[in-house]
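Quick one: structure for this chain?
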Amino acid sequence: MGIRIALEMARQKAGDEAFSRRLAAIRRARGMTQIDLADAAGTTQRAVSYYENAFGVPPAPVLVALAKALRVTTDELLGVKRVRPDSRTEDPETRRLWKKFQQVTELPEKDQRAVIRLINSLAGARD
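Got it. Here's what it folds into:
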């Protein structure tokens, strides 16, 4: 009787992919690079990349540091609550637009895609 070693990829835990997408989206919305976030959170760019590529969810102390660096709560970072716009860096017009975009998320998917196509066509017309 020999020893068998299964050569399988580790399975992701439920929610890892959603966390990684949320972390990357919030970081980009704050105008930060992975290096900026790593510096602000006291970690490495490699660790930030690891979390953003759905390889794992950071331990609690790192999660708290990332949330502080991104100016969000841990609940927002984990997806328990919706992410609020960063009012410290946004003007009133940006906050108004943010609220409108939040309303778009409540539309049916077909209508959401139509709104995105309209925005893309308008933004492309300005180039």
